[in-house]
Amino acid sequence: MIDIETLTVIVGAITGIAGSIMGYISLQRLSKIKSLDLRLELKKAETQLILTVNDLPELLTKAKRSREAISSAIGQLRSGGLKKWIQEWETDLISAKQMISILPNTNSDYTSNSQRDLEKKLILIHQQSTKANALKEKYEIELERDEKQRDRIHAERNSRSQKN
After folding, report:
1. DSSP element (H, E) containing 108
2. What is the percent of the chain where pLDDT is above 70?
3. Number of structural domains in the chain
4. Percent of the chain with pLDDT over 90
5. pTM value?
């Protein structure tokens, strides 16, 4: 017959082994869940980046037309300030086109990538998004400035016409 001490050791060993197995299974599940979360976050970030970057050329073109129209309206179409602005715009347009050329492949599901690879890709996408969003914000602000200038021009014209 087995004494109490031996029985306790056997139960303890079985419990320890079962705990180790359950811990391993939980770790595997957690790893799969983390990979899934990373893949989902990566796909969302990619989609947002693609939308932002693909809209940049149109936004920049709209901003250029707006700036040229405002400059023409205030008699500064051939000014050095506008020429400098257009040079900067051309550089930004080249950057936008480069961003388009390096957009990620949307067909990839990343199931074969390790967590480390997914993290690296996610960091890269966030870096690209930061640049794209900065460019987008810059030209949205430029369009807002032009709109305010348009409002001032209309107000001046209205005040002149009321005086006459």
Report:
1. none
2. 99
3. 1
4. 53
5. 0.76
